[in-house]
Amino acid sequence: MTGILEGKPPRTHDHRAPAKIPWTYPVGVTEQRKPRIEPLDPPMVPFAVGGLAGFAVAALVVWLANGPDRWLDICLAGFLVGLPGLVTMIVHDRNRKRRRALTHPEFRVTSQ
User: Fold this and answer.
1) Fewest CB within a 10 Å sphere: which of 65, 77, 85, 86?
2) Does 29 fall in a domain?
3) CA torsion sign, 50 to 51 to 56 to 57?
4) 24 within some domain
């Protein structure tokens, strides 16, 4: 911070020789193959059931606490909209075995 306190202009650059900065990667670094990261494919039915249970519990709490009718309507709507989502996730999970067999031929289901 010398210079600022003494009224001199601050040094904007260093007069020493600049360090050599490689502007490109060494040969072969960018040609290496990275291992493929597999996407997650968890079972989705538990998430749909959890959402339905959450809206059902919220509706029960609002009803028992004599909450606003609008809140109860929202809980009911969330539960009803979740039912087609549950059906969709059941179908999605049913097709998991087929998808895994296509992407991983070594994959075998040992239980039904």
Assistant:
1) 65
2) no
3) positive
4) no
**Distance in angstroms (rounded) separating the CA atoms of residues 34 and 37:** 9
Domain count, the chain: 1
Domain containing residue 61 = 45-98
Question: Scanning the structure block, which residue is given the tokens 């969709």?
Answer: 88
- Token pair, residue 63, equals 């009803």
Structure token digits, residue 6: 């003494």
Compute the distance between CA of residue 112 and CA of residue 110 in angstroms, rounded to an integer.
Answer: 7
In order, the DSSP letters of 7-58 are TPPPP-S--SPPPP--SSPPTTSTTSPPPPPPPP---SHHHHHHHHHHHHHH
The structure tokens listed for 100 are: 């895994």
Which pLDDT tens digit goes with each residue over 30-42?
A: 666 777 777 778 8
CA–CA separation, 99 and 112 (whole Å): 16
> Which stretch of DSSP H or E encloses residue 92?
helix 69-94
Tens of pLDDT, residues 40-87: 788 899 999 999 999 999 999 999 999 999 999 999 999 999 999 999
